[in-house]
Structure formats: structure tokens, C-alpha cells
Specification:
heterodimer; A: alpha/beta; 4-stranded antiparallel β-sheet; 7 helices; 30% strand; B: alpha+beta; 2 domains; 14 helices
């Protein structure tokens, strides 16, 4: 079953009178349970593609489907609902809310989804355990290392049991060992929970974890290789 | 909601000094608003009360032809048999007391010094004299049959160097248009709290004033105090007589009512200025918060937070800021008003003609003003914060996420 589908999507940024094509008629289908890397040099359109699948941005043309919904036809609030219910994000910078503890950061999507206090507590503790950060639950982001922060972000992305987790260069700001730890956690969670991961990267050490590699260049998919496996 | 407040509280603590200064701006503004309201209310309230109890009363009955600005004692302008008229009026239920008074113009002189005064003939037995009787600073109130005693105000006594027992010379314009003069002994010196008023009047027993001015058994007015001044119109309509004119305190004090209205408008403008400055501070603080936290707003949006929830988050922050500011402002404003309401603020002889002002102004904070101004300050802060909150809510997630940390 497909989790996300991109049909003939283009994204053009206009700066003054200059038009820059970030994506040029891209087609891509992401199946449930995939662990897929979007690779390519800087400016190839990886991040733009992730943002479009993640309903953070709208394509200039073409359509984007998430869990059977054509999100290009949805308004702002409906797209927020799709993000809230179906998509988890992991960003390159450790995008945690600085005033909240690890526990509260993971709890945030559950609060937005209206889960009960008991449900929230159980889920947050389960996830912090899964990313091995139970002992850091009361720490704020500035009291944690980059690796720990990114693990909190992974736990948060998983919190509301989304169908799809989108990670934009999740290891770019981490050293090798923390980067590997993060990738191993993502791999394990993909295997154990079946949640779909799509991550953008240009780090060869990260690419090796992917079971499918989609290569972009100049806004086009130039290679779509489902043969790799870790 | 609780979670919004928790986040809002922590966000405010991120920049403690900035948050504290913004709350302080609101505190100072509210304290000022409250104190100003109390000051003007106190001033107008005491001026109105002084005017009613000293000068106009709640109602006055006069001869239809009497001109209060001239204080003429010509018979045709006076009320005949005033005691009887006063007794009849006093029998009306809402009337607390009614007493005849005679006004004549005169000049007090002592040696080379002299001062123009209004001579008021009063019935010494009447309760209406309470402000003078209670305000005695020396001596006593002249009795009804005192033929040589006079009661003078403290500022007049000071300026003429008079003490109880001293004598003065009083000139009066009589009912026949002549001038008469007589020596009087100062029986008592009073202070009503308004130097402007006290320096311009002297009191004689009614019988003596009538005899001295040639008014006979006549009076200028019947001075009436009601149990409830709001009943003035009703009582006025109950007093009938072709030769009488009845005036209510509103009619007699049009200037005061006008000044009161004007002061309300004046306060309103001052309030707007103060609130305007405060709003600018709050909007600035909230805008800084929004722009500093653009990426966080992007993260929250990515997590699925909707525009109205982002607005709620920032409004929670503003509400906490406002709450802190309002509580401190309320305490400071109340404390200032209470302190000066007790000791008064000395202004001395304000000297506005046609109005009676006390030498001290006692701020008087009304519950109504406290509620109105506090709610206004709170709501205005929230309204002012709505604009920055709306900017935050309209940010495109993808753009917000790109912002510098």
C-alpha cells in the first residue's frame, strides 16, 4: 500500500523575475514500510521534495498524495491536520522547542492530537525508552548533546504513530558515532514498528542504511534504485 | 490551555528582563490610570459635595424675581414669611431640613484693611449650619438673639488679623439702596476646607441680618437639603407657589456639572495616550518574540499546530504578561490612591470663581473605575498582542523553518 505519491510535481521559486526550478515534473511512490534515502548534491531538490510530501509546502504544479489524500487540494488547516495525524518530521537542526524538556517535546504531538494524560504518559515513556533517553526526560535541549537531541526528535516524530516519517539530513550535524547511532535507531524502529522512513542525505555512510535509494539531480529523479539493503 | 500557559510562562522567562520591563510598563500605566481617575473623581466629588452643603443645597426656593448673582435685599426680590415657608417644605418626606437664608453684600473693614464679603443670615438653630459649626477653629457659633456677634472664615480672619473677641466694622447694602454700618464682635472663626469660599463670606444670625439690612421678616432663599439628592426634581415639583421659583442642584451648578463632564472627557483622552504608549511597548515586545521564534513557530506548524493554536500560544504569553502587569499596577494604583486619599494633596486656594474647591484634594478610587480600567488595560494588551500573534500564525511553515535560529 502506498503511503505517499508524487505525480508530475514541479516546484518553481520566483525571486523577482527570475524563476528557479527546484523540481521539474517528479514522479515518486513511497510504499508502506519503506526505508528510503533521497540522495543528490546540494540544490538537487531533496529537501523540496520532502517538504512537499510533508505538506509544509505546495507544488507549483502536479499533485501530492499522502495516505490517500490529495494534499494539494487541501487548505492550510487541513494540511496541518495531515501533518499532525500522518507525518512525523526529523530535521537537520535538532528542531526541539528549547523551553520544553525532552519529555514535553515528545508529548507535544500527542497534546495536539488530543490524547489523554494517561495515554500521553505511557506513549512518551515508551518512546524515550526506545531511543534510550529515559534518564534525560527532564532535560531541556540545551542540557543535551546533539545526538541526544536528535534522538528526542526521532521519539517526537514517532509519537502520534504516523504512517510516514520524513527526515531531512538527520545526521548532518552529528559526529560519526552519534550519526550511526541515530541511523541505527531509525532502522530498528522501521523494522520493529513498520513505520515508513524517507530521509534526505548526501552522506555515503547514511546511504548504506537505506533499502531504497532515489537519486535527484537538478530537480529530476535520475535514479530510482530499490536494490540496496543494509 | 494549561499547556499553552506553561509554554507561555517559560517563553516569558527566556528574556526575564524584557518581560519584566514590559509588564512594568503596563503596571505603571495602570497605576497612573487608577490614580488619575481617583484624583479627578476625588476633586469633582468633593467640589460637588462642598458646593451642595455650603452653597447651593439640593434645592433652593426663591422669589420668582430674585437674581442670585446680585444678592439684593430689596423687598420685592425676597420671600415673605420665610420661617413658615421653610416649615411647610420641611414637612415634606424627602426633605432632611429646610431653612431660610438671607444674602446681602457687604464690606468688612479693620483699621485700614477691608474686604468685600457676602453676608449670610442663617438660622443658628438649623442643622444646615453643620459645615460651619463643625468647622469652627476658634470661638463659638453666635446664638439666634446675638445682636453683635459675627462668624467669619479663617482666611479672612488671617488676612485682617482678627481673633475671637476682636471687633470689625461691617458695611451692608440695605433694602432701600443705602449703606449701613455697624461694629461686630468676632464670636467664632470657621474653616470649611475651602479657602476660596471661606474668605468671601461672613455669617450673622438671621434676625440680626434681617434687621441690619432692612429686609424685615424676609429671606433670599429657602436652603433645602434632601435625604437623597436624586429626588430633587420630585420635591421641586411638589413645591408650588406663583411667587416662588424652585431650582434643583443640577440647575444651580451647571458649571460644575459641565466641568465634571469635561473632566471625564479629559481623563478619557489621557487614558488613551497612556494606553497607546503601553500598547506600543507590548506590541514591540511581542513582535520581537515572534521574530526571534520564527523557526520554533515553523516546528510547531510542522507538528500540526494550526494558526489559531499559534495565536492562542502568543496570546497566552500576552495574557500572563498582562496579568503580572495588571496585578502590580492595581496594587500600586490602589496604594497611591489610598495613601493620598487619606492625607490629601495640598493645592491651597484654587480660586475658581463660581466653584468651590477644597484646599486639599483627596483622591477617591471607585470600584467601578478599578474594574473598568483594569479590564481595559488587560483587554487592550491582548488586543495589541493579536497583531504579532497573527503574524506568527500566518507564517508559511517552510519559510519559518528556514529562519535563522
Amino acid at each position: 500500500m502506498e503511503v505517499a505519491k508524487v505525480e508530475n510535481v514541479s516546484r518553481v521559486y520566483k525571486i523577482g523575475t527570475v524563476e528557479t526550478y527546484a523540481l521539474r515534473g517528479v514522479n515518486l511512490t513511497i510504499e508502506n514500510g519503506e526505508f528510503t534515502a533521497l540522495v543528490g548534491p546540494s540544490g538537487s531538490g531533496k529537501t523540496t521534495l520532502l517538504q512537499l510530501i510533508g505538506c509544509l509546502d505546495q507544488p507549483t504544479s502536479g499533485s501530492v498524495w499522502v495516505n490517500g489524500n490529495d494534499v494539494t487540494r487541501l487548505n492550510r488547516n487541513q494540511r496541518a491536520d495531515i501533518r499532525k495525524g500522518h507525518i512525523g518530521f526529523i530535521f537537520q537542526f535538532f528542531a526541539l522547542i528549547p523551553t520544553l524538556t525532552a519529555y514535553e517535546n515528545v508529548e507535544m504531538p500527542l497534546l495536539l492530537n488530543g490524547c489523554s494524560a494517561k495515554e500521553r504518559h505511557e506513549r512518551v515513556m515508551e518512546l524515550l525508552k526506545a531511543v534510550d533517553l529515559l534518564d534525560r526526560k527532564d532535560n531541556r535541549p540545551d542540557q543535551m548533546s546533539g545526538g541526544q537531541q536528535q534522538r528526542v526528535a526521532i521519539a517526537r516524530a514517532l509519537a502520534s504513530k504516523p504512517a510516514l516519517i520524513l527526515a531531512d539530513e538527520p545526521t548532518a550535524n552529528l559526529d560519526t558515532s552519534n550519526g550511526e547511532q541515530v541511523m541505527e535507531i531509525m532502522t530498528r524502529l522501521n523494522r520493529e514498528t513498520g513505520v515508513t522512513f524517507v530521509f534526505a542525505t548526501h552522506d555515503p555512510r547514511v546511504i548504506k542504511y537505506a533499502r531504497r535509494v532515489v537519486t535527484l539531480r537538478d530537480g529530476l529523479i535520475v535514479e530510482n534504485d530499490a536494490g540496496q539493503a543494509n | 490551555m494549561l499547556n499553552y500557559l506553561k509554554m507561555a510562562y517559560r517563553n516569558l522567562l527566556r528574556h526575564r528582563r524584557r518581560s519584566a520591563l514590559s509588564a512594568l510598563a503596563l503596571s505603571i500605566a495602570l497605576a497612573l490610570l487608577l490614580f488619575m481617575a481617583a484624583f479627578f473623581k476625588g476633586e469633582m466629588r468633593s467640589s460637588m459635595e462642598d458646593t451642595l452643603r455650603l452653597s447651593s443645597g439640593h434645592l433652593q426656593v426663591r422669589n420668582a424675581d430674585y437674581d442670585p448673582d446680585k444678592s439684593s435685599v430689596a423687598w420685592e426680590y425676597l420671600i415673605e414669611n420665610p420661617d413658615q415657608v421653610a416649615r411647610q417644605i420641611a414637612a415634606l418626606g424627602p426633605v432632611k431640613f429646610a431653612t431660610p437664608r438671607l444674602f446681602a453684600s457687604g464690606i468688612v473693614s479693620v483699621g485700614d484693611d477691608s474686604a468685600g464679603v457676602q453676608i449670610i443670615g442663617v438660622d443658628p438653630a438649623s442643622e444646615a449650619n453643620a459645615p460651619y459649626r463643625d468647622g469652627l477653629v476658634a470661638g463659638e457659633f453666635p446664638s439666634a438673639d446675638d445682636r453683635t456677634g459675627i462668624l467669619i472664615g479663617y482666611p479672612l480672619a488671617e488676612s485682617l488679623g482678627l481673633r475671637v473677641g476682636n471687633s470689625l466694622n461691617l458695611l451692608v447694602n440695605t433694602s432701600e439702596g443705602h449703606v449701613d454700618e455697624q461694629n461686630f464682635i468676632v464670636r467664632g472663626i470657621f474653616s470649611t476646607g475651602s479657602s476660596t469660599y471661606d474668605k468671601g463670606i461672613v455669617l450673622l444670625p438671621l434676625a440680626k441680618a434681617q434687621a441690619f439690612s432692612g429686609a424685615g421678616n424676609r429671606a433670599s432663599i429657602i436652603f433645602i437639603i434632601l435625604h437623597d439628592r436624586e429626588q430633587a426634581e420630585t420635591v421641586a415639583s411638589a413645591i408650588t407657589g406663583n411667587t416662588f421659583k424652585v431650582e434643583t442642584w443640577q440647575e444651580m451648578n451647571e458649571l460644575l456639572v459641565l466641568v465634571n463632564d469635561f473632566s471625564n472627557a479629559y481623563i478619557m483622552i489621557l487614558n488613551l495616550i497612556i494606553l497607546g504608549v503601553t500598547v506600543t511597548v507590548i506590541v514591540n515586545t511581542m513582535l520581537m518574540a515572534v521574530f526571534e521564534r520564527t523557526r520554533e513557530i515553523g516546528i510547531l506548524a510542522a507538528l500540526g499546530m494550526k494558526g489559531r493554536q499559534i495565536i492562542a500560544l502568543f496570546l497566552s504569553e500576552a495574557a500572563l504578561l498582562a496579568l503580572g502587569g495588571v496585578i502590580i499596577g492595581l496594587l500600586v494604583g490602589w496604594a497611591l490612591s489610598a495613601y493620598f486619599g487619606g492625607v490629601g494633596i495640598y493645592f491651597g486656594d484654587i480660586g475658581v470663581s463660581g466653584m468651590i474647591f477644597g484646599d486639599r484634594i483627596y483622591p477617591y478610587l471607585m470600584l467601578e473605575d478599578v474594574i473598568n480600567l483594569t479590564l481595559t488595560a488587560f483587554i487592550v494588551t491582548l488586543l495589541a498582542s493579536y497583531y504579532p500573534a497573527q503574524i506568527a500564525s500566518r507564517m508559511e511553515p517552510v519559510e519559518a523553518l528556514r529562519a535563522e535560529k
